[in-house]
Amino acid sequence: MIDIKNGKISFIEQHLFEPKIKDFDEILKRYKNYEVNLFLHIISDPSCRYESGVGSGRTKDEIHKLSAKDRFLSLLENMKITANAKGFYANKIQKGKCFPDEIKSTSFAYCNRLEVSKHFDARQSEYGIVFFHDFLQSNGITPVRYINEEDSESIRRLVFNEPFSIEAYGRAYDMRWEKEWRINRDLAFSTDDVAFIIVPDTEYHYFIEQNSGAKFDYFVLPSSVFKPPLEFFLCAHKMDHHAWHQIRLYGEWKVDFEIFPELSLEEESEFMIECEDYLHCLAKAEIQDVYENRYISRFMRFASSLNGEFLEKTSFKELGLVSANAGEPYETHRDLMMHCYTRRFEIQRDRINM
User: Are 104 and 186 within one domain?
Assistant: First the structure.
């Protein structure tokens, strides 16, 4: 989805100009190598390690006392992430002095889909928010720099320009795995800036109801889309924006999801041997669909404002292909679900009461 080169964050558009997928093998060819990278802000629970030890006292009292869910609800309603003090200088402030704005920031992890669950564990929370990369870039997001890896001249430059971005790792804790980026202030946003929010599977329908009640308006994804792939597969049909009521087996025979008994350990093992790659592709397509759908629509609006004669003389003439591929993740999700449920039916046939 996105890539970073020379500090510049870019949308990867190549797949939009590839031939339209025509069969199941082409789905696998595209999605097995498709990388899902994103900027993620996970809401910390007060019990997590970031708010204990040297990190204690850095969160405002009115926020510190709230659970991760309550913090998340407040963030979504107020449309603002509050910056707090962090980094190399946070525990070097004179006693009794307030934390200076120069070291306050909002934090984001740049990670791929398989790394997200590690952030869930570290924050003791599965509530998160993913912004469109161009919004973060326009707000001055910058990668954390590690004092261990900088020379004295570089450190001096950082102190004068972005002390909020400086960290130090050690034997006790090496945080480089977080691939953290920061913005040096509170981050106010609108719903258009948010690609989607992440919530625990058990809270998915609660947050959908909050949307339908006009309390706020965000695309919602269950946290299982970032976990071992079977978890997401088993809940994917319950997702509101797909509106699954039945599934087609063998491409034509509609059945209710309720006919399938819970997978036994033996059945699960057989199913995963045959379908694990498909399930990873399913999760990738789900995230891609939600992130890219609206992002690509901005490009299409821009392109539609250009002179038609100019469009025909440039790569913009392939807009029809871009539009077709923009809808591909949704179709891929459908085809993968049908394929996997057909295989599940074959494995569980003897235990299914038709």
Answer: yes
